[in-house]
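User: Reviewer 2 asked us to show a designed sequence for the structure in our supplementary figure. I'm pasting the structure tokens here. Could you produce the per-position amino acids so we can include them in the response letter?
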């Protein structure tokens, strides 16, 4: 899975955003839309939001996971075990910190994305 695919999956599966064309500028690229807590829609250009490579965007993913009841751990300098420089794990009351939702990557941003996707994947296969 490449970075753009990872970003798309994070937006849809974790952030629960929808992708559609801009309502007024049909020739523009697609945007991500989310429902704000007060009911209005907010949009982000799809090309501008890149949590797999932008650590600020990746921490938006962490905050969303925390809103959903997940706890987060980030470790670096894992190259000695040959699995990438960063590891991230999410856990909650139903899932202990046992490595089930831990992922390794070369950057913290990508590790956050991969671990978050693994954690929410459980919704589809009955783990959560």
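Assistant: Here is a per-position design you can include in the supplement:
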């Amino acid at each position: 899975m490449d970075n753009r695919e990872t970003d798309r999956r994070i937006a849809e599966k974790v952030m629960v955003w929808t992708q559609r064309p801009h309502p007024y500028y049909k020739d523009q690229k697609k945007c991500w839309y989310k429902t704000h807590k007060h009911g209005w829609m907010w949009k982000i250009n799809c090309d501008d939001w890149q949590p797999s490579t932008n650590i600020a965007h990746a921490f938006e993913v962490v905050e969303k996971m925390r809103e959903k009841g997940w706890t987060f751990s980030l470790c670096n300098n894992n190259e000695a075990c040959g699995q990438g420089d960063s590891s991230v794990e999410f856990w909650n009351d139903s899932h202990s910190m046992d490595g089930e939702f831990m992922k390794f990557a070369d950057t913290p941003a990508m590790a956050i994305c991969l671990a978050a996707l693994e954690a929410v994947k459980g919704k589809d296969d009955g783990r959560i």
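For the response letter, you might also mention the following. Residues 16 and 36 are 12 Å apart (CA to CA). The first strand starts at residue 18 and ends at 20.
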